[in-house]
Amino acid sequence: MADTRNPGTIMGEKAIAARIQRAREHLDRFRAILKEPDRWVSVWFLAYALLGAVSSGLLPILLPLMIVALTHHLSWVAYVMGGFNLGLLTSPLWGNLADSKHLHRPIFFCGFLVLLMALAVMPFFPGILTWSALSLLAGAGSSAVATMASLFIVEFDPQNEWEPRLGWLQTFNGGGQVAGLLLAGIFVSNFKLGLICSALALIPAIWLGARGLPAGAKSYDWTVEIGSHMRRDLDWRFLANFGHPELLGGGLLRFSHHLSLQGLRRFGDMLHTRFGRFLFSWFAVAFGVAAFFAYFPVAMQKAYNVAPALTSSVYAMTAAIALVLYSVGGQLSGRFGAGRVYRWSLMLRFLGFGLLLLVFFLPIPRALIALAGFVLIIIAWPLQSISGTSLTARLTPFSQGEAMGLFNASGAVATVMGTFLGGPLVQFIGYPSLSAIALVGILFGWLTGHGLQTPDAAPAIHNDVAAQKAQS
Q1: pLDDT at position 3
Q2: Which of 14, 95, 182, 383 qualifies as a FRET site for 70, CA 20 to 30 Å off?
Q3: Phi-psi bin for 170: left (phi > 0), alpha (psi -120 to 50), beta?
Q4: Contact assessment for residue 206 and residue 47, using Cβ atoms and an 8 Å cutoff
Q5: pTM of this prediction?
Q6: pLDDT tens digits along 388-416
Q7: Major facilitator superfamily (MFS) profile domain: from which residue to which, for each copy (predicted)?
């Protein structure tokens, strides 16, 4: 029977039906996006988020402020924060212990317990030696948890799941850092309560870990997949695809299981290569900025008249934005070359520290200019991190695993050295020395970073892959 309705009505009904169909497709796609994390996220990721809140959010703000408020010794900040950074360098120890003794779960839980106890007793035992020792233990505990967290994925899950699981793991940690920075603004007037609450926050982290951590290697063969063999296979291309939480703007907790010093045996092989020049550049920048990031809550308050609560809030918002900028850094590196993006990031940081130093010599409003410089310094890190990772893989004359070890070790050692240097600098010269030494380090890094990557540079080929191809 023929349809006697108006043709316009029929077309209108078809258009409505088409719109409804498109809406259903969009809704189904949105539901799929919401369900996607269920495939990769585990309950114990929340424990790692709490670690980010405490180690990367609360402590960098509360510890320097507490030390200065209780002792009035500016140099003590460098030694206590240097102890914390020194504790983070224990990562290779935990990785080797886990590989040899298969103590992943005990190391993970002991790391939380050590961090918890160090923070709980710190407000009650003032003193440079006591604080430094407790801070060292706190750094070692944080390093143990961070190292085991990554190893639980790369040693207990199949290789095709590493990328999304590591991405979500670090996203949880970064989100925890943002929350911790926001909470730090609440506790800046009561440091003792802040540290005690930080310790208490780790109790549910232990409970969450006990619920969700894998007890064994599932159905995979430990003898084949654990240890250095798997970590050597980690690919820089997916390491650079997602955000890394920053500890004091330098990312010492970033893939702590790669903080391996074994690559130092190859150091002599690359002294005169472009990779050696890049490592010197990376070292100089990390060394220069370390002192500022040890003191920044105190410096922003004392030298720039910025309240600690405002500093932590601005840092939190900037860190949240920075999580998105990692993908931008990857896209820019692919389009313009990692070498250019690396030097652009150093220029941004140079401008930021330049603003911090400029206010000491010109009659301009310190607070506003200092906050602008601080934001530039933090926002430049994603570009520096992604481009630096890419340059490591492209320039290395040997395997990417050893190159990543040297890359992370150079930045970590430079951070520890620069942090300890901050004490005498502030004590004898004052707060302008923090931005001045940062400018010098960045300038050296920028000059030695020139011409690292030629336009026709190809990605580095992993030695193991090349050997397999040769055999086939």
Answers
A1: 54
A2: 182
A3: alpha
A4: yes
A5: 0.77
A6: 878 887 887 766 666 776 777 788 888 88
A7: 274-472
The answer to whether the beta carbons of residues 50 and 106 sit under 8 Å apart is no
Please state, in angstroms and rounded to a whole number, the distance separating the CA atoms of residues 32 and 36. 6
For residue 271, the one-letter residue type is: L
442 contacts: CB under 8 Å, gap ≥ 6: 284, 285, 288, 289, 346, 349, 350, 353
Distances (CA, A) of 87 to 135, 178, 206: 8, 23, 20
Backbone φ/ψ region at 364: left (φ over 0), alpha (ψ -120 to 50), beta: beta
At residue 254 the predicted structure's pLDDT band, cuts being 50, 70 and 90, is: very low
* Structure tokens given for 455: 């336009």
Lookup: tokens for 413: 């050692």
For residue 222, the tally of other CB atoms under 10 A from its CB is: 12
pLDDT digits (tens, 9 = 90+) for 3-17: 555 665 666 666 677
In this structure, are residues 255 and 239 in contact, taking their beta carbons and an 8 Å threshold?
A: yes
The residues, any chain, with a CB within 8 Å of residue 267's CB and separated by 6 or more, are 406
Distance CA 424, CA 111 (A): 31
CA–CA separation, 277 and 270 (whole Å): 9
Lowest mean pLDDT among 16-25, 371-380, 408-417: 16-25
Q: Ramachandran region of residue 216, left (φ > 0), alpha (ψ -120 to 50) or beta?
A: beta
- Going along the chain from its start, the domains and CATH numbers come out as 41-458 (1.20.1250.20)
Distance from chain centroid for Cα 215: 27
- For 414-470, write each residue's pLDDT tens digit: 888 999 998 898 888 999 999 999 999 999 999 988 887 655 444 444 444 443 443
Task: Choose among 61, 287, 329, 293: nearest CA to 177.
Answer: 61
Q: What share of the chain is helix, strand, coil (3-state, %, to 5)?
A: 80, 0, 20
DSSP letter assigned to residue 362:
S
Q: Are 191 and 126 in contact (CB under 8 A)?
A: no
- Among 42-51, 272-281, 319-328, whose mean pLDDT is lowest? 319-328
DSSP string, 314-350: HHHHHHHHHHHHHHHHHHHHHHH-HHHHHHHHHHHHH
CA gap 379, 347 in Å, rounded: 12
Maximum distance among all alpha carbons in the chain? 98
Q: How many other C-beta atoms lie within 10 A of the C-beta of residue 447?
A: 12
